[in-house]
């Protein structure tokens, strides 16, 4: 997951023209995903909270965490972001999740302005 994100970011940097851009990016690194709840690829009871934790504060208002079933159907969720923890995205499903496979997709804007996306899967028993 983290490797994928870094690769995408690297592609963005390579797309830039100046080495100065690369230097600036390294000095002010973008956020990295530290962990998710539920754990990626875990099998759990219907979770009350789904979270993505990053290593630094992100632009929470420009970022999102979404949930869908394996067939792509979106699950309605409520945003539960805590203003005291700007490095974490939190959502709560509006209903108890039926058994099955789910994908949570995050899209963030780091404080350095870089956009990154990723996803993780879990199963509800
Ligand atoms: Cu960055």
Describe this structure in words.
The two termini are 23 Å apart. This protein has one domain (2-124): Immunoglobulin-like. It has 2 helices and 8 strands, in the order ααββββββββ. 18% of the residues lie in helices and 38% in strands. 20% of the residues are buried. A hairpin with an 8-residue loop joins strand 5 (77-79) and strand 6 (88-93). It has 125 residues and is an alpha+beta fold. The chain has helices at 2-15, 19-27; strands at 33-37, 43-44, 50-54, 64-69, 77-79, 88-93, 100-109, 115-124. The strands form 2 sheets. A 4-stranded antiparallel beta sheet has the order 1-3-6-5, with no helix packed on it. Bound molecules: copper (II) ion. Copper (II) ion binds at residues 9, 25, 29-30, 110, 112, 114.
């Amino acid at each position: 997951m983290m490797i994928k994100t870094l690769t995408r970011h690297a592609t963005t940097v390579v797309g830039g023209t100046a080495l100065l851009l690369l230097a600036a990016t390294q000095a002010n690194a973008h956020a990295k995903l530290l962990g998710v709840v539920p754990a990626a690829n875990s099998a759990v009871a219907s979770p009350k909270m789904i979270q993505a934790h990053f290593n630094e504060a992100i632009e929470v208002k420009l970022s999102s965490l979404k949930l869908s079933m394996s067939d792509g159907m979106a699950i309605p969720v409520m945003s539960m972001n805590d203003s005291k923890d700007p490095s974490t995205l939190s959502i709560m499903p509006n209903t108890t999740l039926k058994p099955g496979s789910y994908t949570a997709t995050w899209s963030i804007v780091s404080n350095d302005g870089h956009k990154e996306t990723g996803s993780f899967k879990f199963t509800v028993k």
